[in-house]
């Protein structure tokens, strides 16, 4: 007799804003070979020899600016989502984080204790990336083999182009912008090194990271983060009937010296202000839950950049978080899986 359950998985946060906790978290995160994808000795030198000497203090200060009484916004918002999805679906729902204390192992154990044998892993990311979806699935499978051999896994694929997702995202944008005569809407996605995109090109020749490859149909797009980001912008633009030239795409949060996906968000905000845009809005569809990258890097630093170059109004659109319509959409996908297994995505 089998029993189904779902495990929602988000990125994770440090346990507190203490630099020691931030260091521990960053060590686990940045030592992941799917995040910094260089040989172990080099990754260890970069992360432990350079980044962790200075970054934890700086990141801890940034976390302190956005931390809530209940804890990390990303964790609290993910917990609220889990609770609501649990109320809406007919199967047990657990929550885990890829990094930090709320481990995937604990999440799977929780489901096991409820008698679950068939698990739908739900990476809480609209787009595929090796630094997000892939690393979750790889770790989950390793844990399954070692600790939960009686379980079977399916996964919810990237949902960047699912009409129900585009609908709720568009609605969330329209609601926030209602009555605001903003001049430009920027879609800012978390960046990744260009190398990550080329590495996951299953055709080995499609991705050139130019103006054309991501809009030219290809099987490579199943794993192309850049294509999937541009598709979200395009589909929302269509849904909201945004006029050409009033919206654009950029990539934030670059780290290190390698080329990351461009255009960069900070430079784009600056350019918009310098070219006479007075009122801009910004949405961050690589994240389902508000987090350090949206609440500090965009809502605080981004706004500061815009004002410094003469921009007047800067509106940040919240992530979907635990919105009722998003909860219904996510719960619907899970319930549909629970009734009929549609897709199996574990390699
Ligand atoms: C070095 C590489 C990084 C890659 C590649 C990367 C990809 C990536 N990250 C997210 C989502 C989030 N990242 C967050 C924080 C964060 N990201 C990196 C580095 C890379 N991310 C660092 C060093 C940090 C820590 C904060 C800092 O020191 O600046 C967060 C926020 C977590 C929180 O606690 O709020 C999220 C969410 C995606 C979606 C992605 C690839 C697509
Ligand atoms: Fe990140
Ligand atoms: Fe592409």
Automatic annotation (TrEMBL):
Fe(2+) binds at residues 190, 293. It catalyses: heme b + 2 H(+) = protoporphyrin IX + Fe(2+); Fe-coproporphyrin III + 2 H(+) = coproporphyrin III + Fe(2+). GO terms for biological process: heme biosynthetic process. It is an enzyme of class 4 (lyase). Pathway: Porphyrin-containing compound metabolism; protoheme biosynthesis; protoheme from protoporphyrin-IX: step 1/1. Belongs to the ferrochelatase family. This is Ferrochelatase.
